[in-house]
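Hi everyone, sorry if this is the wrong subforum. Our group has a chain we'd like a structural model of before ordering constructs, and none of us has done structure prediction before. Sequence below.
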Amino acid sequence: MLVTANRFPHHAATTSTRHPPRLFAARTSAKDGRDNEERRAVSENIVVETAERIFADLADPQTVNADANGSWKAPLWNALTEAGLPLAWVPEACDGAGASLADGFGVLSAAGRFGIAVPLAETLLAGWLLAKAGIAAPQEAMTVAPTHPRDRIALQGDGTLAGRARDVPFAQDAKSIAVLVEGDGGTQVALVDAGQCRIVPGRNLAGDGSDSVSFDGVRPLTVRPAPADADGPALLLMGGVVRSLQIAGTLEAMLEISVRYANERVAFEKKIAKFQAVQHNLARLAGEAAAALAAASSAADAIANGAGFDDAVFLEAVSAKIRCAEAAGTGAAIAHQVHGAIGFTREHILHRFTMRALAWRDDFGNESYWAVELGRRIAARGADELWPLVASR
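Answer:
Right subforum, don't worry. Here is the predicted structure as tokens:
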């Protein structure tokens, strides 16, 4: 297995329990008189603003697009690690930053707006899963498995694993993998050394790592029981909301890029933004971006403020994944139609966003899978329960 440690280097000094990341220092010094809601708002603003500054400084889309060697990745990952962002969802007691779910969701939305292609979302998810099981998260790039609804990893009687996970994001770049496994004791969370796995490299539509990982014969570093809110369905729902937020972010970027281009491109002696057909397409793109952002934000709020993955959270999360996946397809088509042939060239930044949005819609269950699951859940509840559930959201 090729582990590209030089691309996503190890950084632990700023994320210990004794020295929490500087990013969250302001959270601990807030005045005692502030209520919890105000504290959360201040925290989220600080976290997202810090993430956006890092992205703008080190992952500007034009600069990234022009760098064929990917030399921007290591400085970006170092800065993110020093800020405590990859382990934002890991409690300080487990060597993380101890940020709220809302903090992390805000960072992921911002990452989508910049088309970030490093395992930030995956490390956040892995840290969240490990923390749920009380496992200390390693200070390094991680990913999670399985990400397909029908993939299963078994914990055998001799303590080794068996099974394969498909399309695991950034598995080749990760040092560790947080894995949900099934054994005699039920669902458990395992921390696995990625170097012990057989990894077949793959790429998604955007060219990012999407690898096949075989766990056969691998002995986990740590195994702990998975709580009810961190089982297989919970991981898929959490991952689905993460991807929904990222897709919503890319759609915002697509809209901004398309509007700017339409106001600059001249055809028949006037800007194409003056043509009614182009205006109509841009309005449709704005509608798709707004719908995706609303659905993803609502689902993120439901998880951040809820007590688990109940029916209400299920409805929010699944609806967001379905709506954002649909918006990705429609929005990407419109954005490329506005740009014409130039939007398809490797030199143009548009494809960084459209291709990632299209790739992310398949992760953690695509819209077809979740549409069927949503229909089954609603049918099981019965007709009398549907309206009260929908009206309560």
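For your construct planning: The longest strand covers residues 176-183. The chain has twelve helices and eleven strands.
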